[in-house]
Specification:
The chain is an alpha/beta fold. It is about 55% helix and about 10% strand. A six-stranded mixed sheet has the order 1-2-4-3-5-6, sandwiched between helices. The protein has a two-stranded parallel sheet with strand order 7-8. β5, α12 and β6 form a beta-alpha-beta unit. α2 runs parallel beside α6, α2 runs antiparallel to α9 and α4 packs across α5. It starts with a helix and ends in a 21-residue tail after the last strand.
């Protein structure tokens, strides 16, 4: 066994091991200290690396065996060229023999560009795998180049001997009959071209793999460039802070870089409280509410601060298992750490919207009531599966079975998006910027940060995984902010609850917009859900007022000014912002 074979064997083994590791991390079902990010692209990179390493081992060996040249030359990737070219001139033996080396040289250069793009986009795991694949491509290029030169020496090695004769001599040297192989025959130049024609050579397993690997590398190049160009086109705007903590599912200590933004008008009255906005996390960055930020700062003359939760926008990725985002557990809650790192002291009007962000706002107000003026949740929702259970009058076990089946589909869809949408850059085709987003000149940037990065989808998948694996008591628990309503009231912190008001005709229009018949069970469930959510928001303010002994907390309804029924969410990025 020669040195190149040993190297190829080692590289193949390491690549297979790393592929298995990345597959496990991509679909990891346990809480750990693994930082989520780049696993989908890394999966493809490892798969291609395995093919390249195995190809160099099986077909690119320097070893000389009887009939090796004859048999392998018919299987060279020059056959790809023959499939697309019917002329004899284009499909000469030399091009066929040297094509594999050119194949690997081209993709080594392409992968180097992808590696740079992964570095720009902070996709650390994909970056490591991309560096390894680039090295493997260079190795395979050298192996196949040496192989091709043995089969068909270049002109610099054949000044004194005609190419055909020297080639025949080399073929004879490799394949000549020896004492132990009396049946071996001498190969000729006629053996180099694929013997069975272009159609047959295209169907070979090796050729198919090389074509698939090529498409994957081109796709990964497109995806890495798309994400890297987005980060370059939309540079981080705000203040970076660094927090170190052990608020992780496994209790390990991590360091995270968080992007924050604080905006204030000229001649700002510093005696007024700051609006502090907690924004989602599962699928939302603070860019979702830039229109609201501009309205509060420019129209109402107030100071406004927000930040990207880990795993969203520009901030660091989350660790595996930290995707609850409800604020009910310590490892989903970093609001106090962010404020301390910024040097902010308040006081604050704490607003929370989407993905349970109002729970984090409530937790800060309870933990540090001296810094809180009010909590402003934006439409609190009942758990969708609790609503399904109560509407359909089924048991909790049946509800969980139904919920897991629904969430499993979303979880699988999220991984498909990462494996094909973000990895290959296809996601940008299906996620155009919204024409109603405000400010409109930031619409494309918001879409990029919220929908077109692998990090955001990985965070979303972790959030869904948490929902699937939560214990029974979490399936039936009321929202954290509702369970803590009495503590808010006891600390004298009012709750101003924003809610989208809908009359019967608007609810009917929503059903029609969803293509449901007005007498269908889907429409009935939608209307019933609205009534239950309104009752939940009323219960929140009632509990706060009872504990406070006053009526300072209330629901602020968005009625006629929010008549548009095409959107189900309260804070639509359009004319409703002013409300």
């Amino acid at each position: 066994m020669q040195r190149d074979q040993i190297v190829a064997i080692v590289l193949t083994g390491l690549t297979l091991a790393w592929l298995l590791v990345n597959t496990g991390l991509l679909f990891n079902g346990s809480n750990s200290c693994v930082v989520i990010g780049g696993f989908a692209a890394a999966f493809w990179l490892c798969a291609v690396s395995l093919y390249v390493a195995a190809d160099a081992l099986l077909y690119g060996s320097f070893a000389k065996r009887t009939d090796e040249t004859k048999s392998s030359s018919k299987d060279l990737r020059g056959s790809i060229l023959c499939c697309c070219c019917s002329t004899v001139t284009c499909c000469t033996e030399k091009i066929v023999v040297y094509f594999p080396a050119g194949y690997y040289a081209f993709f080594a250069i392409l992968q180097l560009a992808s590696t740079i793009s992964f570095a720009i986009a902070w996709r650390w795991n994909a970056l490591i795998c991309s560096i390894a694949l680039t090295a493997l491509l260079v190795f395979a290029f050298l192996v196949h180049l040496s192989k091709a030169r043995k089969v068909y020496p270049d002109s610099s090695q054949a000044d004194s001997t005609p190419p055909a004769k020297e080639h025949d001599a080399e073929m004879a040297e490799v394949s000549a009959t020896d004492e132990n192989n009396p049946t071996a025959t001498t190969a000729t130049t006629d053996d180099i071209a694929p013997a069975s024609g272009a159609t047959k050579c295209c169907s070979t397993f090796r050729t198919t793999l090389s074509v698939v690997a090529g498409f994957v590398m081109v796709g990964l190049f497109a995806g890495s460039v798309q994400e890297a160009s987005g980060y370059l086109q939309y540079p981080a705007n705000g203040t970076w802070i660094t927090i170190t903590h052990n608020r992780t599912p496994a209790g390990c200590t991590i360091t995270q870089h968080i992007l924050t933004q604080c905006a204030e008008p000229e001649n700002y009255n510093s005696s007024l409280p700051t609006f502090w906005s907690e924004v989602g996390g599962g699928g939302h960055s603070m860019s979702d509410l830039w229109g609201l930020r501009d309205e509060i700062v420019n129209t109402h003359g107030r100071r406004y601060c927000s930040y990207d939760m880990p795993g969203t926008g520009w901030s660091s990725p989350i660790v595996n298992g930290a995707g609850d985002l409800s604020g009910a557990r310590d490892f989903e809650y970093i609001t106090d750490l962010v404020m301390d790192a910024l040097g902010e002291t308040g006081r604050y009007v704490l607003m929370g919207s989407m993905d349970g962000a109002y729970n984090r706002a409530a937790k800060f107000a309870i933990d540090r009531p001296e810094h809180a003026v009010a909590v402003v949740p934006v439409t609190i929702f009942n758990d969708e599966f609790l609503l399904y259970r109560d509407f359909n009058n089924i048991t909790t076990d049946e509800m969980i079975e139904y919920g897991v089946s629904q969430l499993s589909g979303r979880y699988g869809f999220g991984h498909l998006i990462m494996l094909f949408g973000t990895s290959f850059g296809l996601i940008s085709v299906f996620t155009p910027a919204s024409s109603s987003y405000q400010p409109q000149d930031k619409a494309q940037e918001s879409i990029f940060l919220n929908l077109q990065t692998e990090k955001q989808w990985a965070t979303n998948c972790d959030y869904i995984r948490h929902q699937m694996t939560r214990p029974i008591d979490k399936w039936i628990a009321e929202p954290y902010i509702v369970s803590k309503a009495s503590e808010l009231g006891a600390n004298g912190i009012p709750v101003l609850d924003f809610f989208l008001e809908r009359n019967s005709s608007q609810l009917a229009q929503q059903c029609l917009n969803s293509r449901w018949e007005l007498d269908s069970s889907e429409c009935a469930f939608s209307n019933w859900t609205y009534a239950q959510n309104l009752a939940l928001n009323e219960e929140l303010t009632r509990r706060v007022n009872d504990a406070a002994g006053d009526n300072s907390s209330s629901i602020i309804m968005c009625g006629a000014e929010c008549a548009d029924t095409t959107n189900a969410f309260l804070l639509n990025q359009d004319d409703h912002i002013a409300w």
